[in-house]
Fold these 2 entries.
Entry 1:
Amino acid sequence: MEENVVYSMPRIGDKAPEFKAITTQGEINFPSDYKGSWVILFSHPADFTPVCTSEFMTFATLQTKFEEANCKLVGLSVDGLFSHIAWLRTIKEKIDYKGMKNVEVKFPLIEDITMEVATKYGMMMPGESNTKAVRAVFVIDPQGIIRTILYYPLSLGRNFDELYRVVIALQTADKFGIATPADWRPGDEVIVPTGGTCGAAKDRMEGKDEDLKCYDWFFCTKKIDKDTILKKILKK
Ligand code: BEZ
């Protein structure tokens, strides 16, 4: 690792850093082109590598599902545009993996040979690699605010069910003013914000609100049907 080099990274709650980039779908201005949509901006280490190929095929197969949740996908690696194009062509024409074949990657893949974007977003982790971005995931909301950040090393392919769960859980928290407990999935009980007075705590313990199930005064949940959540979130 180089000495005296400070590698910064944006944090949850920050505005997504702005950039202009060339992608496999043309030029993009980020995040302004995505105003009004959720976005998953993710990096991968390198084109023509097996873990990345399995990830891209999975993400491309799930693209419609993410778009139904108003979430767009944008990929990035520090490879050049022609490498990206050649790799995506190979994926479509040659790779038959786990029942996925003829897979067309229709979301933009950013070329970042200068590492400008990868550096801005803290996707370069020199302890892991000086030349490849790690597997970073930034979930950005329709106002351009970073809401979740996940990092994986080069050797570990991401869990795309979890990425989808994160998008749905964030939207559910925003739309219903609740929080989601461990391992939450739509239809499971959600957490109702704690009342901020001694009176509210007493009411909770006395069971005044029949919709609440309280494990203690600071930990109450309620049911929201899966259908109610999905109807509010998914555009079908
Ligand atoms: C892969 O995607 O297979 C990979 C990329 C970089 C390092 C190790 C594995």
Entry 2:
Amino acid sequence: MFFGQKIHPLNFDGPDRLTIGTDAVELSGANVRLWVRCTEIADGCLRLRFENERVTDGRQHSDAVLPEHRPGRSVVPQMERDTAVFAATAGRVELDATRLRLELAGFSLATVTGGIGGCGEALLLNFDLSAVDGCYGFGERTKHLNKLGDSAEYLTVDVVAVFRHTYARDDYDPTYVAIPLAILKSGERFLGLFFDNPGRAVMDAGKSRPGEFWYQSLGGNTDLYLLAGPTLAEVVRRHAALTGRAPLPPLWALGYHQCRWSYRNATELRELAAQFAAADLPVSALWYDIDYMDGFRLFTWNRAEFPDPAALNRELKAAGIHTVTIVDPGIKREPGYAVYDSGQAREAFCRTASGREYVGKVWPGDTVFPDFTLKTTRDWWAGWLAEFLRDSALDGVWLDMNDPATGYSRTEEMRFDHGAVPHDRYHNQYAHFMALASRRACEQADPNGRPFLLTRSACAGTQRHSAVWTGDNASNWRHLRMSLPCSLNLGLSGVAFNGPDVGGFMDDVRAELLVRWHQAGCLFPFYRNHSAHFTRRQEPWQFGPAPLAAIRGAIRTRYRLLPYLYQCFFAHWLAGDPIIRPLLYHYPGPEFSDLDDQYLVGDALLVAPILHGEGQGLESIRHGVTAQERPVVLPPGWWFDLNRGEWLEGGRSLPYAAALDELPLFARDGAALPYYPGPLKNSLMDLSAIELHLFCREQPARFDYFLDDWETRRHESGAYGVARITAEIEGGRLRVVIAESGDYPTDTVRFSPVVYGHPELRELELTINGRAAIQPLRAGQRDWLCRTLDVQA
Ligand code: MIG
């Protein structure tokens, strides 16, 4: 398997003639014929379909776009001199015989000379980047946030199995997720290009030839979706509207997760729960990796080690600890094993071209693979998985090895639809259909509840079914640093619910790295410590009291802010904004174009984690305490430093030194952060009493707090409300107004304001649903990170 190679543009044949039909423009040349069609899809979104005469199977096999957005309204081309024009509401597309030009929301883009071409089934679209100064999205990638000067190949792989060297590096290309979305930036304007082709493809943003963006699909036809800006947020929201947004997760799934490949018996699980309690650490879920199974047979337990898994899982859940098991797609090829036999009877497995069951080599030995593209297979799978979840009292599903990983057996022989559809049409979508089938299983097992699924591999649209973790990273500082741009770009690419293995999966972690990774990741959408079985153990208490205390500060801060994170998920479900965002999302200035060592949670919290250590960064020792210094870029306005408890003026970069138990964490002036003040007992949280932490130095605060039951799917049919919160400074008084509306009972949550204000604030006027009361502000204290800060309440 070769990565990073592409087809030289000189190997493509370009068109030189243009003819216009009723709904398509035909581009042809000596050895090439392409048809281009334009469809208005939704507000600010156009589809350009490129059909290449050489493509043998012209069907669109991609499931990326939501079914309701597939038809659209066709735009009729008009000739203007020798140019064909698609004039649509969202923008304008012009084609002459050799060039494509487009303009959406003030962003113009054109192909270069020779920028449209075909080479067999391959399609080349080659754009001029001279006005472009940034490139984002790209799905799950390594390296940096800004992809200008970089290239990416879209083929999902089991990265470490195929490229063993990767975990020592930070510059490799292969990843587990294929989302060919490029968001181009030109000054303060953005434009999204989503290339919907489920096959292998390449995007090269000026790496091979500076100043040119190359898209090359290697087979099948491509639908290019144009997503209008002008802001980055508009592009991201339009892409999310097109491909789907993450459904609301259950609250427990937003807590802290503990995993490790090697938890191998019931005693060990019970010990873990006891260790968390003893270490005074909340934990919301414990995970079972492959060792729980009987000989790696799916939907079985090793009964010698786990005599009564349902009883164990119920016991843990009573203490607020949920459980999740790994589920691989590979099914042991063993006549007599009921899962295999029933799948065979249902013709549920992938086949070779001649119709044999495709055989791979994974954990159980010879394995067969469910063909999740078939509805019949998905129903069969959902039946088995739902029964397993119910019988074992499990709460979530972890989908691994679905890239798909087939061991020494090549994947290319694996075909779909009883052998009729070649591998490459569904390779990148294997995990997607597995996630769809598995989500159905969760719904079957618990018809009213919210499923929780985590998958390694994914493509555009998979966020509708599952969260994603970024796969096998390693315990080193480069992988910690890379985890920020990787998760940020994945969020911009539609997968809001994601996160890395905190602490690193491969290799041995050390104390300082583990602490810094917990701090960096404790406000990521998904927060799980996971490691490989042959590495040093890395549960929070493994390195003694000082690292444990620092990690405790990070984990507790997550739980304190869980209501805020939940609100970010709610807002994502409604509008598509990512949970964590590069600063560029809200501040489009050039100083933020490449900034990827700090991030925002929602629009109110700024995290600037320490990403160097062990003597490599700017280390200093003051009063015997070692600190790491880094620059922190604060956007304009005031920011409240939650680490030290003081206001800082933004609009500058400042040096910040943080001891091991300190995380540079800032709240924006004008922020309202819902804070959980209650006891920390794993996932057992009573959110009917919430504190509203109001950061009002000069700016009024506004926040929409969504009201729902935190656990059912009733919000999906509109049963939710919103509490509109405003806080304004009037002399020495802070006026807070909370007004609830929507399809939900009022006064289900008791909000208590806590003020981080101007020192002159003396009084609070609180109006809740029309009832007003005035009270003096009194000095108080609140826990943040490893400190107790003085506040007014
Ligand atoms: O061949 O299940 O990425 O998280 O612990 C390795 C064992 C298979 C790969 C996953 C990792 C998991 C491991 N799996």
